[in-house]
């Protein structure tokens, strides 16, 4: 009887030790809901899991289709050998579609016309069967970004591994906007460097050590590209992204590293992700947020 009572007591103590506070559970549920929304966005038509190509155009004519002889070669089996021609001239891209090929723009048949002139507020999206594409500009380069709504990456996606959610990684810090307009140099994965407006600098502490992160972004959201001691090991080697609400009043900010996410380049080889600037490479071991995805 005494032995049985002792076991019951120990089990009761164990349950007490692992019991979570209601506020802890609420916070974890909030993060789980936020993460599910993040996954839904990745899997959506505008998400990164269906991006299957990025083709840089040459000045002049660029034939496209699935045949090897084209300058722009779409995935085999997804379209005809030849679909038409992209013409790049002085920063303007025109599309000429071959007769009989039913390419659509805004759900209407498209045969010939300008699809990019640098003034587009939203890219003109063209589609053919399961494929869609639009023009992007990076520096002085113009490219065709291709999506496949039947991509293998989309079909095979199951989950993104993450560190356990710990509220201790929700850290209060301070925000300091620059006294006068300032920019920071951001280099992307294709080697292009651009000067981005500095929104401000976040200062905070992790285990008694002080750190800083430079943020860009507009409006009410601060955008941070950072790396830490997990980068290239348990997390993506090119760093991670983090969005932080900009303080409406005063200078207090909440930096929630549980919301650290992989950049698009972790899901597709056809993105042009920014890399962390030198000042955003932290000598901290941030075991929070998303881990490395797949074989990236």
From TrEMBL:
Domain of life: Bacteria
Record's protein name: DUF1684 domain-containing protein
InterPro entries on file: DUF1684
PANTHER family: DUF1684 DOMAIN-CONTAINING PROTEIN
